[in-house]
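Sat 14:20. Reprocessing the chain from the morning session after the first attempt stalled halfway. Input below, unchanged.
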Amino acid sequence: MRVRASTAAAGAALLLASMASAQFARGINPRVAAHIARPESFDGRFHYCRAAYRIDPRGDGGGWLTDFPLADIDLSIRLAELTRTPVAFNASGEPEHLIVTLTGDELFQCPFIMMQEVGTLYFSDEDAARLRTYLLKGGFLWVDDFWGSYAWAIWAAQIRKVLPPSEYPIVDLPPEHPIFHSMFDLPNGVPQIPSINHWYGSRGGTSERYADSAQAHARAITDRHGRVMVFMTHNTDVSDSWEREGEDPQYFLRFSVVGYQVAVNVLLYTMTH
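Finished this time. Tokens:
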């Protein structure tokens, strides 16, 4: 289920995302707070790490909790089923997915972090500096589910604070890039995957901003050695294909199968590069 931020919730997220993990957990919905990463959360196994961020009220998007928690849960389960990756599960058999802040030290325990709907994101100077350090130390950021030119402009302006384009330009990844072939062959790159609600409401349409988001893009920022540090799936909602996998057989067959192929490829790439 998508969590849409009201004005009050956006203000709370702006404040909370600047705090350390222990403080960040206070006052949040208990089902969210239970997944805030702490130093003892990590044991060497894979955790889906969702990154919280500050909200720009002028942006276009639902915020960092979009698709929580089912996208995090479902992808963790499928990664364990489809690969030999040791995924962290608790005693009840549930994946131990985590939420990290950009200012908390727990960030550096996650080789992979996910940000949703980054058309509404804002980085402070501290956020940008910490994220830059994380990425240059070997971390990997995937941003997904933002649509159209306005959301792209918001995101591009913010990521420039982290990695200046003069040193780290944004590039379109060619279909032959290893990220599209690490386990599954995806010769056409990343497909356009709509949210299930848009797919229903438009009677099978895939472009959520219509003409302004007609083409899906897979873009990246690499380090000086060519390693992808930031992977951007724009004009597509790959994570909805995990979250909504059990709601409609046709949606599953058309979008979830390839959505999991994209995700497994990305995760295997980041854990081997």
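The two ends are 32 Å apart (CA to CA).
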